[in-house]
Amino acid sequence: MSKYINNPVIGIDVAAEFSIVAILAPNGEIYRKSFRINHTLEGFRYLALEIEKVEKKFSMKAGTFMESTGVYHLSLFHFLCNKMFDVFTINPLITNSNKNSDIRKVKNDKKDALSIAKICKYQDIKFSSKFDTTLYTLKSLCREYYKLTDTKSIYKKKLSNDLRLIFPGYTDIFSDITSKTSIQILKTYPMPKDILFADKDDLINILLTKSRKGIIYAEDKYSKLISTSESAKIIGIPSPSLFVKLISDINIIENFETQIKLILLEIQNLLSSSQIPQSIVDNIDLLKSIPGIGELTAITIISEIGDIKNFTKSKHLVAFFGIDPSVNESGKFKGNNNHISKRGTRIGRRALYAVALASIRCKRNGDPTNSVLLDYYKNNMSGKSKKVGLVAIMHKLMKYIFSVLRSQNPYELRMPLEHCKAYIENVNLKVA
Hints:
By secondary structure, the chain is of the alpha/beta class. Helices cover 58% and strands 9% of the residues. It is globular.
């Protein structure tokens, strides 16, 4: 049962430029017709006055609820929080499953606002009342980093496709065509004939200064460039427009690299400033104690989780990351080909997937990154697809992350037998 069942409840359907507000009296009747407020200072102040009127009339606090709709609700939510109202956000999935409960198919903003108010008044649902500006800023910066790297990858693929047309064989010379060495050569000598007519010392100098791998490496790459350019001059498409497009793609990629560096620098500046709570910095260090989790991944996961106290069990954290199994059952039928729900944080799940991949790999010296997870993957996931095995590893990692953050102790690498022995000894010690 909702804690606001005997209180006035306000439901807000948030849009980009305005919101629709519905108010229910303590007895559940409509207090007044739904009304619209613009997302301006005057609109926010008008809503605050209406909430104050309701609380004064009924002599009790009102619960104000709105959906967590991207960024549209944040300014209104932040304003009402500063006014010390009881304001909460709810998951849109909850309201979407209840909005069309009537026989008539009617959907509009007024009905949605009233539906939100009724759901939050009568149903025992989960909601959030916290908004940490600095944590939200950190999360936004991390998400912007991944967005920029994804867009950069698109242009990198476009560059690779153009090179296959105008410079066939070039992609086989450099493992990364966007490396400093490759980019400098393409900018200086964009066409195969430019490389053929280039001075050898100038080319060697670029290969030496940009790669820093020695004269043997430079000589090898030079010979491959000359050989490839000779064949590309014949089989490549000599279109001047394509070469212009190639230079354009290179400039865009370089611009994205600059923006990515600025985002990473701002993340570091934010973490080193006094704005971020020390508990967040400590939690990032705790996650870095888990093998396979680097600094940026730890920052991303912590920014997505927020306050670990919001999760009472590890399976709640698993569901928040969307790696809990979906269920498909009806009568005697039980689906056995179910996928993970993917209803949680997409960026957090992406970071966790990268950690899972790193956890089952070995380092350059042959030592496993995480011997426990690698042993589990080899012995328990044999005969299953790689994705199924990686999801199982992600489940394990979520339990590690939950345990580390709740106990506030660094991760300890223990084999299962060692862990069972330590658990039994701890139980016996408590009994004694």
